[in-house]
Structure prediction request, 139 residues.
Amino acid sequence: MAEQIKLDVVTPDKLVLSESVDIVVATATEGEFGVLHGHIPFLTTLQPGELRYRQGGNVHYLAVSGGFAEVSNNKVTILAESAELGREIDMERAQRARERAQQRLEQTRQDEKVDFARSEAALRRAMVRLKVAEKQKAI
Prediction:
């Protein structure tokens, strides 16, 4: 068995996850990165995206909507604006959120009062949540 690393995922509201895992893969502003035991320390900002980790033969997914990742002393700490375990995502709710965000983006083209960046970010979050939920469901 390979040596493991500690993964903590924290939001302003709660500790979402605290597990010993084999590998962590997340999406930073410069692209995707992976962390194994013995990785060098670093700090990076996270893009809204998928975070996945492996424990033994099982892969698990989370939807993360931005924040920071710190790697130090065989520990990965994710400080996220929000994070949701793939198995806990309500697909219907995520689908409705995506539809609302798409409607707001359409309004943006017609009404300059609607904030395009916020609408685009909401759509991105909804798409990530749907992608993560579908991947977790497929396992």
Summary: Helices lie at 91-110, 116-138.
